[in-house]
Amino acid sequence: MAGIDPGRVSYVELFLPSAYFEEFNVDGEKEVLGFRLQELTDFLSRFTEEDSLIIESKESSVTLRYSGVFERAFKFQTIEAEVTENRIALNYPFKAKLLTTVFSEVVSGMASLGDIVIFSSKENELDVEVKGDMGRARVELRVDKGSLLEAEGEETTSSHSIEYIDKTSKMRKASDTMDLYIGKDLPCRLHFELPQGGYYDVYVAPRLEESS
Q1: Could you tell me if 118 and 205 lie in one domain?
Q2: Which domain holds residue 71?
Q3: How many beta carbons lie within 10 A of that of residue 162, not counting itself?
Q4: Would 10 be classed as within a structural domain?
Q5: Pair (100, 205) in one structural domain
Q6: In this predicted structure, what is the pLDDT of residue 30?
Q7: How far apart are CA 202 and CA 212, in angstroms?
Q8: What is the pLDDT of residues 38-54, one digit of tens each?
């Protein structure tokens, strides 16, 4: 599952292996289904942990059913979707691995201080900084202190909208570890590892006027 937000600031890609489903049946060739993201989000927000989801596709529509205390069904008209056969391939000069909870706590704690988050890398270190009218905050994450699990690459700096970065904080419930990839004038990549080979990738466009 993949898509880009209307503002074209972020691109997301979600992979759920067939093992995640109680039943998984596909007849014929691979099928690509296109949705309006807002419609799908509104539908999924109605779920609880006790509900089961059934997805059925037919011609130009998809029916989503979920059952719990009540059984409900919603029919969506599909839209034409661009098929991406290969994942985005970018050459990043720096990569850090850390606990998802650590990253989420750092970013969510800074989100009210400004609009732009600045990532700066050094040897075995990642600095996270936010500047704004409300104040300024800077956190150092280091391998030798245990706040980073791994770090490799060269010195670089990148700036991004903290609003889009902070939206990933909910991934702390599903993902134990994550990788952060940064590079000057490149979209940062947040790779959240999910059980059984699943993953959730978020690419957030750079704020070029803030880069240095």
Answers
A1: yes
A2: 33-80
A3: 24
A4: no
A5: yes
A6: 66
A7: 23
A8: 676 677 777 777 778 78
Q: Could you give the strand order of the β-sheet that contains 52-58, starting from the edge strand earlier in sequence?
A: 52-58, 61-67, 71-77
Task: Judge residue 94's burial from the number of C-beta atoms within 10 Å of its C-beta, 0-12 exposed, 13-18 middle, 19 or more buried.
Answer: buried
pLDDT < 70 regions, the chain: 1-8, 28-31, 37-38, 40-41, 69, 81-88, 209-212
Same domain for 115 and 68:
no
- Its pTM stands at 0.78
Q: Kindly state whether residues 61 and 111 are assigned to the same domain.
A: no
> Side-chain half-sphere of 139: how many Cα atoms within 13 Å?
17
CATH assignment of the domain containing 164: 3.70.10.10
Domain identity same for 104 and 180:
yes
The amino acid at residue 141 is L
pLDDT at 5: 60
Query: In this structure, are 116 and 196 located in the same domain?
Result: yes
Q: Cα 2 to chain center, whole Å? A: 10
Q: Per DSSP, which regions of the chain are E strands?
A: 2-4, 10-15, 52-58, 61-67, 71-77, 94-99, 116-122, 125-132, 135-142, 150-153, 156-161, 177-182, 188-193, 199-204
How many structural domains compose the chain? 2
